[in-house]
Amino acid sequence: MADSKDVDTLSTELENRLDDLFGDNNLAPADAEDNDIAAHYPLAELKNLILSIDWEITDDVLGKLLQQIKDLKLTYKHDKIVLTFLQILNSLGGYIQTNRAKSHPKTFKILNSVFSSLDKVVLSREMPETAKKKILRAEMNRYKELRIQISQGKTAAQPKPKAKPARADKPEVVKETEDQPVTLTEPSVQPSEIEISGTPVIEPEQEPDVVTLRQPSVETLAEAVDNIKKYIHDEISALKKEIQALRNQ
Amino acid sequence: MAFINLKNKEIQVKIVYYGPGRGGKTSNLEYVYKKFAKRINTEMVTVKTHGDRTLFFDFLPFDIGIINGYDVKIQLYTVPGQVKYNATRRLVLRGVDGIVFVADAMAVRREKNILSLKNLQENLAAYKKSIFRIPFVMQYNKMDLQEQGIPLLPMPTLEKDLNSQLKIPSFAASAVLGTNVVATLKRIISLTVASIKKDLK
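Output (C-alpha cells, whole complex):
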C-alpha cells in the first residue's frame, strides 16, 4: 500500500514536471523561417532522391532521380558549373541504374559528395566563380578516379571480356548529355524471406529459432566477403574523416 | 540499468529511439530540441553521413529536475536505422532503460518495420534484456503523409504487425509536424522512471 502511494506521488510529480517542460504555454511557433527556406530550396527533391538511394535502389527512385536531374538541367541551363555537376550526377545515376547493388562501393559516396558540393554552390550565391570551379574540379577528379577504378576492376576481374554494353560497366564520360535508356537486368532489393501477416512479428520469450537459409555458392560467398571488406574499409575511412573534422571544429 | 548515484541522489535515464532507416527517429529529437531548446537548455549532438543520415547516433540530454528527491537526467539517443549499421545500433543499446520504436507508417515500409523490430529483439537479447519487459512505447510516424496521397498502413494493421504481442502504449504521430512527439516522450519517460523506481526498491 505504501509502495503504491509512493509510485502515485512519483507519477504525479513527474507528470507535473514534464508538463512544465513540454507544455504548450509561452512557446514560440515552430520554425516558420526554416520551413520557408525548405519550400524555396531548389534541390530539395534531388536531395530526397539521393538520400533514398542510400537506403534502397529501386526503379522508381532511380527513374525519379534521372527525371529530376533532367528538370534541373533545364532550370540551370545558363549555369555551366551547375550543369556540369548535374551531368556528373546523371552519369552516376545511369551507372547505378544499370549495375544496382553491384555498383562500385565508392559510387554512392561520390554521388553524395557531388550532391553536397552542388548544394554548396547553389546555396552560396556570394561564392566567387573561381571557388565554385575549384569545388567542381575536385569532384571531377573524384569522378574520374572512380571511372579508372571501375575500368581497372573490370579488367582485373575479366581479363578477356566478351562483347558487352559499355554503358553498363562504368559511368559515362561527363561531356555526354543525352539520356539513353538502359536495360535493367537485376532486382533492386532482395525480397525478404519473412511473412508479413499470419506469423508473429517478434519471437515469443524463448530461444529464437535458427533461420535456415539457402546455401550460397563459394563464389558468392567470396564476393560477399570481398564486398564487406571493401565496405568496412570505406566506412572506417569515412568515420576517421568525421572524427578528424569534429576534432578540428 | 540506469546510472544511479545514491550519494548525489542523481539518476541518469537512457532512452533510445529505435526503428527502420528514414523512419523519423532523428526528426523526433530535432522537434523536441527545436521547440523546447530554451526550456531544456541543452545541446543536441548529432553525427551524420555525407547525406544527412544518422551515422552513429543523435544524443539529446536534458535535466527534468528533482523528482522524489532525485535529480533526474534524461538522455535521448537515436540509432542509425540502415540495416548495415547493426554494430552501432547494438552499441547504442548498451545500458538502455527505455525504448521508443518509431515505425514508418508508409505502406511500402511495412516489411522494414517488422525487420527492425525483430532486430531490436535480437540486439536486446545480446544484453540479456527482454523486449517484453523493458519500458517500451510504439510510435507510428508519418501520419501527415496521408494528406499528400501517400498510401499509409491503417492503424489496425500497424498494431497487428508490431504491437499484437507487445501490447505497449502506441501513438499515431508526425515527427515533422510535432504531432504526438511530446506525448510519446512523456509516456516513455514516465514508464522508464517508474520502472527504475520499482527496481530501486
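The radius of gyration of chain B is 16 Å.
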